[in-house]
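[audit] Reproducing an earlier prediction to check determinism. Same input, same settings, fresh worker. If the tokens differ from the archived copy the diff job will pick it up downstream; this log only records the rerun itself.
[audit] input (320 residues):
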Amino acid sequence: MNGYSISKRYFGMIALSACSTAAMGQGLGIPLSVAITPNLFDSELTVSESDRLTEARLKSGLGLSLKNTAFEFDADYLLQSRMHANSAASDNPLSQHFNASLQSSALNRWLGIDLGVKANTLLKAGGDSYRSRLTPGFSTSLIGLATLRVNYEVELDRPLARQIETRKEGYSMSLEGALQQGRLSWSGTYRNFDLSDADVAVAQSTEVFAFKSRYRFNEAMHIELSSTLRYDTHTTHSSADSYTDRLLGTSVSFAPSTEYAVAIKIKSHDQPELQRQERFGSGSISWFPRRGLELTFDYGDQLIEGDAGWMVHTRLDFNG
């Protein structure tokens, strides 16, 4: 045993319910519900066998929720740091996480869709490294047979302070549904986005078409088919190169009893421009001799770092 951990958490929860007397609801006469959830202090200390502090993790955050009959707004802020005894101070930067979402129930009822906006930001090293994402979108039901989802996304990413900021912008559309009382389920997705930086207006353009379907014969057996087609165009100052990826997959799962299960997968990966074709398969056999105990044998053509291999897994659940 190398040591032990001590976890201490001091937190408070405040729930406030403000009606028309609240400042934001007074003028409109609309009841407003306000909930504040502070996580004032959350620490986890790792101590060695010689009772020497080796690592400390600190977290502190605040959650805010505003709701009434017109809109719902939720926001969370988290400040955390991980400090190690053998690391320099510069290796233990603070990180800040911010997440927010906004939607309007009244607007959704009027439009007949589920419309919302999500935003999240991660700041490191005092803001020199960051990743921010803004995603507005909506979903709606089509005649009760399928669900349509459309999202637009803008992301700014700077992994390291010395790196150039990259911008990702694009949209996605997906359609999913089920037939025969859920026995046949399917989903299709289209994504189109551009990556750019300060040097090149559009460094990479990507289009992705994906489709997946699953048919359940009975409680013990189902088959799944999937396909993905991806087009990438990489742009430099002097040229533009295009690449195509085709990925096809088939899987069959069979569990005739509660004691064992079998799964087989076959995949195909083609890259025409690179004259590369790959066909690989994998499979697994699982045995459950008793509750809480599972033995699994896995085989795959690319199971271990791209090479063929096999593995045996054992899982024992003491609470089972």
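[audit] rerun output stored. Observation attached for the diff report: The domain at 164-320 is CATH 2.40.160.10 (Porin).
[audit] end
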